[in-house]
Amino acid sequence: MLEKPTLLSNSFRFITIAMLITWLIMPLVPLAIWSFAKGWFFPLILPKYWSLNAWNYALSDTAGVLESLWLTIFISASATILSIMIGVPAGRALGMYKFKGKEYVELLILAPTIVPGIAVVLGIHSVFISIGLTNTIPGVILVHLIPTLPYMTLVMSGIFSNFDPDFESQARSLGASPLKTFYYITLPSILPGIIVGGLFAFLVSWSQYILTLMIGGGRVITLPLLLFSFATSGRNDITGAIGMIYILPGIIILILTARHLSGRSAVGGFGRI
Amino acid sequence: MSDRTKILLLLAPALSIIILLFFGGLFVGLLRSFNYMPIIGLTEPNLNAYFSVFQSKEFYYSFILSFHIAFTSTIISATLAIGAALLLRRNFIGKSIINFLFQINLTVPHLVGAIGILYLFSQSGSFARLAAEWGMITRPAEFPELVFDPYAIGIILQYVWKEIPFIGVIVLANMQSLGEDYESVARSLGANKWQTFRYVLLPLIFPGVLSASVIVFAFTFGAYEIPAMLGANYPAALPVLAYRKYTDVDLAARPEAMAMAIVIALLSAVMIFFYLRYTRKRIRG
Amino acid sequence: MTHVSIKNLTKVYPGLTVPSLDNLSLEINSGSLTALLGPSGCGKTTTMKMIAGLLDQTSGDVTFDGTSILKEKPENRGVVMVFQNHLLFPYMNVQDNIGFGLKMRNVHKDEIFNRVIKMLDLVKLPNMENRMPKELSGGQQQRVALARALIVQPRVLLLDEPLSNLDAHLRFEMRDLIRNLQQSMGITTIFVTHDQEEAVVLADQVALILDGKLKQYAQPDVFYKKPIDVVTAKFFGGQNFIKGTSKNNNFSSNIGKLALPKDCLQGNGILTFRPENVQIGKGPKSVNTIKAKIIEKIFLGTQTRLKLSIKDEVIQAIANPNEVDEKETGIEIDINIPPSCLWVINN
């Protein structure tokens, strides 16, 4: 260690880290409190009464929050599975082969991870209208592929570039068929990558707003759309409850994958969440 | 099967979806921004939408506002992220818990952060209540306007909140793979702590910081829901303005919306150029 | 010229109970070139980092000309460390790399440039100032790293494995360069290495450190002629160890009675001699002639290794291939071991 810890530098470090973490956690606190609050008006620091009303509402069968939750899970899971099915082969091509024009293919795949959704979704909307995909769930799933598929492809490209193809050759020379080679040799090596990449692709889809708003046209109400409308209509308690439900998968996934986060390829996806 | 065919087959599904959806969307947007749409009988492309966009004050205000949001958020986030990475790279008691807390909002969607910022910083939010408790204000209106404000302070606060860990985690990984030896060399050659940071560590992590910042800039310039939640009504951020134009009852405004989408896409293209330039350099170096 | 004195230097890493460096004391003369030799993990790099101020000592002291330096910050110690993998700053060209230390001392640009050019001549890399590190070979990078260290005229220069990353043909070139520069500039130099050959080739004095403890501190040839114990002898390639008794300059053991040099230990001990000092076919008239049977013969190109049995003992010898060409495995030969090549180690 280059720095010699002194009492002064240690307390400085402690205080700054405490401030940093406080700042990062702070915006989630009022949401959590609101979800249990009743009559929390200015200038009360804490709610006057505590209540489970917002949670009862959010978790009731009639309010539509649960319906929206299942719908969002369905859309994100579908987009993720499609991204895996299409992104794994593409990642293999990019990670394991050198070929002419590879950098242009990479550019094509990189572009959607940087260009904001609003820039493409208006054009897509006017096409989707004419082929009847607007206001439909398949239309929304399809448009969610724009951020999730390139992400999955780039993650898998990184995974495959660390995979030694000689393992496959060895298996083939020992008599394994191509299918068996994939199942027994390739898949076990890339599975951790697929799982981590897939979980993050799920979160990328989970957090989409403008793509769903435009293509869903107000008929496909995912959780973020519901959350937005409750937040702007001033129902802070219900907003708080939906907000807590909405961030739960991300936190679970973070707990499951925290040790993979030091790998840079996976982190890139968070630029779109 | 030759390698060529194999590669083509492996890439075909992904490339067709990206080309059809992403580039198709861009291309149709471009055509429509030129008022070209044969299906509804518009066969004479023109630049009317661009003329009207570039002649409206509203567009310039929105563009400048979005640029200000993106630039300010990126600079502040990158600076604080480097500071955070410097703090967190050392070993200390409870490091793994702190690291987890540092990463926690990576997976929290921007929209949730925006609502949190709203509940903290609005004129009836937590900070206004604290100010009232301490007798600094008596009515919500006396609290400074930090959300829905013309300087987009609330929006920037939200982005800074969200992007510090994003850039921070990338910089931290970067620092860990570099190790401390370069800094040791510099110290042993006579550089003091500050000089070591300024002339050795900073240049070494700069490409990583820059490529992360490019992603952040493009995102913060083009995101819709955060300025829609926290922004002032006028001027609105460019993506909000584009959405409003597109959903205007007057269908004639749609080409203008498309023109704005193209402006956002062009700015992102510049960002991609920087991104590639610096990531490639890092790979080569 | 700086005399370095290391006194009871000890390092216990947090969480470990065994010290990584245990009470090391060394006196290093002004202007000398000293090797810290040992296998990886023996504490030698730890020692160097503590001298450079890149690591805190647990206890002990390091003084330069009698003044302790351990309270000084690394940049104020007058110590420069050159790392094994060179660590040239990748985004700076050769000129900026070499001039780095002067820039940190706020030396004027023009003067930095002049001194860099002179330095480049000294390390035999003229006209290379605008190259980037990645455009240089390993040997060139090494020389730039050396120039970058020497230009600040340190009191003490620390080198981490200075020859180990180099091809065989470059090692002697670099060895000469380091020796010449070090001697002409008179800089007290300490280097660490795991390679006994590197230590012997380069150093005036060698300190062998095993498991964090100093084994022996002496001139290089002493480790071959008079190793302090079996482990030290083995580290330097010693292979022959025979138990016996030393009395009146004679050593009695299984293989007979051999004459010893004068200053040997008396009493029970272990006789050791280098395989290369076993002489073959010199005839029975010399002192210390014994009969041995060849039990294995391995041709290694420039030399031939022999495994010989003398009664119940097996010894190793190295011979010139010509001398043993016609001697087949299984035959008995006469061997000589001159008294001056024998040494007795404490049991």
Provide a descriptive summary of the structure in words.
The complex is a heterotrimer of chains A (273), B (285) and C (347). By secondary structure, chain A is mainly alpha-helical. Chain A has 13 helices and two strands, in the order H-H-E-E-H-H-H-H-H-H-H-H-H-H-H. Chain A has a single domain (28-38, 48-261), classed as MetI-like (MetI-like fold). Chain A has helices at 7-25, 28-34, 53-58, 65-96, 102-114, 117-130, 137-161, 166-173, 178-206, 210-216, 223-232, 236-257, 264-267, and strands at 37-38, 49-50. With 285 residues, chain B is mainly α. Chain B has one domain (55-284): MetI-like fold (Orthogonal Bundle). Chain B is 74% helix and 0% strand. Chain C is α+β, with helices and mostly antiparallel strands and 347 residues long. Chain C contains nine helices and 20 strands. In chain C, the strands form four sheets. Chain C has a six-stranded mixed sheet, sandwiched between helices. Chain C has a five-stranded antiparallel sheet with strand order 13-12-11-14-20, with no helix packed on it. In chain C, strands 15-19-16-17-18 form a five-stranded antiparallel sheet. In chain C, a hairpin with a 2-residue loop joins strand 17 (304-310) and strand 18. In chain C, helix 2 (94-104) crosses helix 3 (109-122), helix 2 (94-104) packs parallel to helix 4 (138-150) and helix 3 crosses helix 4. The radius of gyration of chain C is 24 Å and the shape is elongated. Chain C starts with a strand and ends with a strand. At the A-B interface, helix 1, helix 2, helix 4, helix 5 and helix 6 of A face helix 1, helix 3, helix 4, helix 5 and helix 6 of B.
- Tell me the major beta sheet of chain A: 2 strands, antiparallel
What is the number of helical segments of chain A per DSSP (H or I, 4+ residues)? 13
Query: End-to-end span of chain A in angstroms?
Result: 35 Å
End-to-end CA span of chain B:
36 Å
> Compute the gyration radius of chain B: what is it?
23 Å
Strand line-up of the largest beta sheet of chain A: 1-2
Strand content of chain A: under 5%
SSE blueprint and pairings:
The complex is a heterotrimer of chains A (273), B (285) and C (347).
Chain A: H1 7-25, H2 28-34, E1 37-38, E2 49-50, H3 53-58, H4 65-96, H5 102-114, H6 117-130, H7 137-161, H8 166-173, H9 178-206, H10 210-216, H11 223-232, H12 236-257, H13 264-267
Antiparallel strand pairs in A: 1-2
Helix pairs in contact in A: 2-12, 4-7, 4-9, 5-7, 6-7, 6-10, 7-9, 7-10, 8-9, 9-12, 11-12
Chain B: H1 3-33, H2 48-55, H3 57-88, H4 95-103, H5 110-121, H6 126-133, H7 153-178, H8 181-188, H9 193-222, H10 225-230, H11 238-246, H12 254-284
Chain C: E1 4-11, E2 21-28, E3 33-37, H1 44-52, E4 59-64, E5 67-68, E6 79-82, H2 94-104, H3 109-122, H4 138-150, E7 156-160, H5 168-185, E8 188-193, H6 196-202, E9 205-210, E10 213-218, H7 220-225, H8 230-235, E11 240-247, E12 250-253, E13 256-259, E14 267-273, E15 279-280, E16 289-299, E17 304-310, E18 313-319, H9 321-324, E19 332-336, E20 343-346
Parallel strand pairs in C: 3-8, 3-9, 6-7, 7-8
Antiparallel strand pairs in C: 1-2, 1-4, 4-5, 9-10, 11-12, 11-14, 12-13, 14-20, 15-19, 16-17, 16-19, 17-18
